[in-house]
Amino acid sequence: MEPRHLWQCPGAFEGEREGDVVRLGTLAGKEMDVGGLHLRRAWDGGRLSHPVTGRGGVKLLHPVAVDSIKFERLDDPTVSDYSRQPSQWSRLHDAAIQNVTEDPDNFNIRALPNRGYGFPGALVLDVDNDGDLDIFVPSGPGQEHALFMNQLSETGELNFTTTCGRGSCASKWRVGFPDLDGNGVCAGDVDNDGDQDIVILNFGAPWQLLRNDGSQFTEVPIPQENVTSGTAPSSCTFGDVDGDGLVDLLVTFIPNFPVDFTRAAFDVSFDLNKRSRLFMNKGPDAEEHFVDETEDRGFAGTPSNITWSAAFIDFDFDGDVDLFLFDNEGPPNPELGERGFVHVWRNDGTGNFGIVHPDETNIDAGGNRGHAFGDFNCDGQLDFFATRQGAFAGNIFHIIVRGILGAPPETRNVSTIATGANPLWFYGSETGRFTEAAAPQDPDGNTLYLPMGWGVAGFDMENDGDQDLAFAGGLTLFAVQLPGSGAVLENLGCNGTFRRSEALEPGAYNDYITSGLSSGDLNADGFMDFVVVAGSSIPDNGDGSTALRTYRSIFNATQNEELSKSPFFEEAQYYPTFVDPDNITLAWAGARDADGEPIPNGDGGLLIEINDADSDNNWVKVKPRGSIGDLEDGRVNRDGTGAMLFFTPEGGKTVMVPHATGHIHGAHDKAHIFGLGEATEGQITVLWPGNVYNTLKVFANEVVVLAEVPCDCRTAEQDNGGYEACLLNSVDNLKRRGVIDDAMRERMFDSMVEGCP
User: Fold this and answer.
1) pLDDT surpassing 80 at residue 304
2) Considering only CA atoms, which of 330, 240, 148 is closest in space to residue 708?
3) Mind listing the pLDDT tens digit for each residue in 698-747?
4) If you write DSSP's letter for every residue of 583-626 in order, what string do you get?
5) Which of 49, 588, 592, 682 has its Cβ near the most Cβ atoms within 10 Å?
6) CA angle, 688 as apex, 683 and 692 as ends, to 5°?
């Protein structure tokens, strides 16, 4: 990827200090590459000071307040009393308990569904536009979906209610649907009216687009005639693929429940897989709001896969969104060949896609699930982290599952470590090739063999200027259940080094089969929180003892010696259910009540983890906003989806975050929090869809709505003042429309003149 242009940005300068203000001198020769762009730090002279306080914010260093961070489980009765109804396929698990007890010789383990209790996600979003973040969780049949309305703006305290007036909030907002089996969800502004609309993915029924008018949702039909009956949608995401200012919808699929997933994973290669579908947004006034154009957009004739999630990301920094599909390998099976790649599809700029061969991206096959994008080593290149089955679960899979499914005895107790199942980092480069980092070592000499993950979020938990990771996930798989303890990984200085953080309680999710994880600043304190959704819970025995077992109890000495290098190993546990792990035979090995009767899984729930924010580090919260409908030349969708954000605190490293919507099973809040450490100002640069750059100077602990300004400063030297005229006209009109106030109008104009890429 060739360098395209130069970008001026604050950084490490030579200069003189006058009290609280630094007078900048000449550039100290600093150059770097960011996202394939060659950047040169080139501010010359001038005084930088806060426009309100007059105090300077430029720092030659980037100190960070070192404090402890803990995620505390929110103690809110509305949340803790919530019990999620499982998916319709849970009845197969419950019936199987009786079958394996009464007639184990005729028990068909393959008839059990994978993840039969469902895999619910969560939306963190402001449903009613009152300034605080609400939570939406889909439920199984027989129960309304849950809409938790945040009362922060009304009471000043973080608490939630599911009651609105005389009924439920879900009923008031018309998102209940108690007869449907909902799992994956995503959110986006499909009609550019400023409200968040949502999509609910249902099992055994058409999925739903619900359009928000500010007071309730209205269902909008999506034609699904090209979708095979009985398909199992897994995740969805929005992105404006053709640049018309309307976000389009992509839905991913896995093979159908209850039995097709088993056959697709173990017995056949591609025949039962379902192709992801691309629905083009034609606008709210069209006869059909969304139209399926999958085959017309470059996907015809390509193999379908077991696809858990997808992301629209501007992979090559050319101003249009490309597509990442996160495909699952299924169990390792040489006879079936490799299938589980992270497939990258490049957009040609018109909304037509061509696949980038895995040889070009250098991404090996594996059991990919969830994803978090960013620049984890601050080298200016796009990276991502993918959740997988986990090193511990990968080994137990070989021992138990393949054993009862008829694998040769010599494969049931292998001494190898399933590093290929470990969640891992993919570090980008200027060439578009990625380098994998599987099970790296932390500075303390621990090997990061990680637990299982599905939902994942990348965010700066302590606001020190780099992106950390939080993930969770469990699995119900045939004869065993694998809860997954959950993890928070701390980024150490943005150089590609991570370690296990004690911010999350060890074994936080061992009692649950979790799936979705979504993030947002729920208490509006400038520090990111997250929520985790469980499809079911694991019961204790009738005498109060745990039915969980340690992985150590089933691995051999070689495996235990190696895996004990992981900081997660001692808390890693599994739940045997339908197999006796001592001799790999079918029998009920799960929880029993006081009378010795088997106990099925309990209902799922919602777990909210609040960042206690024990840190003096500064931050800035940025909310991108497209200007279509506000400006004559505005072309970016209202959510700003598809933008690439680059943030540089004074004296700090530049971090990059894609502004994307939708991940595995759910979606994060669309606001981004960037950490400044002890710096008091910085600069945000946005590459908008359409290939226009805007820059804005920002200050500590403020919330900024960054509106698209459709003026390209890279042509300023040739346009005889046209760029500044365009800027002035745009910010004047944004102020006139009420998008920005007078102070932001002045700041945007000055920043975009002085800090032009």
Assistant:
1) no
2) 240
3) 999 999 999 999 998 787 666 778 899 999 999 999 999 999 999 999 99
4) TTEES--S-B-TTS-B---EEEEEEEEEE------EEEEEEEE-
5) 682
6) 90
For residue 654, how far is the Cα from the chain centroid?
21
pLDDT of residue 26: 27
Helix (H) or strand (E) holding 171: helix 169-172
The answer on pLDDT for 51 being more than 60 is no
Structure tokens at 183: 């799992």
* pTM of the predicted model as reported, rounded to 2 decimal places: 0.89
pLDDT at 33: 37
Residue 129: count other Cβ atoms within 10 Å of its Cβ: 12
Instruction: From 527, 516, 539, select the one nearest 598 (Cα to Cα).
Output: 539
User: How many CB atoms within 10 Å of residue 318?
Assistant: 16
Q: Are the C-beta atoms of 683 and 689 separated by less than 8 Å?
A: no
CATH number among 3.40.50.300, 3.40.190.10, 1.10.10.10, 2.130.10.10, domain 71-159+185-391+419-611:
2.130.10.10
Domains of the chain by residue range: 71-159+185-391+419-611, 711-757
Helix ranges (H only) for 228-351 are: 260-266
Distance CA 164, CA 179 (A): 21
Tell me what percent of the chain is helix, strand and coil, each rounded to the nearest 5: 15, 30, 55
The sign of the CA dihedral 599, 601, 605, 611 is: positive
Radius of gyration of the chain (CA): 26
Tokens of 548: 């969980």
**Rounded Cα gap, residues 340 and 447, in angstroms:** 24
Distance CA 670, CA 754 (A): 28
Q: Among residues 109, 152, 163, 227, which one has the least CA distance to residue 478?
A: 109
Question: What type of residue sits at position 664?
Answer: I
State how far the alpha carbon of 265 is from the alpha carbons of 24, 237, 576, in Å: 61, 24, 21
Q: What local confidence, expressed as pLDDT, does residue 306 receive?
A: 82
What is the tens place of the pLDDT at every residue in 704-714? 999 999 998 78
Instruction: Report how far residue 60's alpha carbon sits from residue 678's, in angstroms, rounded to the nearest whole number.
Output: 11
Closest CA to 12 of 651, 634, 679: 651
Pick from 230-239, 391-400, 538-547 the range whose average pLDDT is largest. Answer: 538-547
Phi, psi of 311 (to 5 degrees): -150, 135
What span, in angstroms and rounded, lies between the C-alpha atoms of 712 and 687? 11
Q: How confident is the model at residue 113 (pLDDT cuts 50, 70, 90)?
A: confident
Mean pLDDT estimate for the chain:
84
Q: Report the distance separating Cα 157 and Cα 246, nearest Å.
A: 36
Question: Rounded to whole angstroms, what are the CA distances from 694 to 331, 621, 643, 671, 755?
Answer: 46, 17, 11, 17, 9
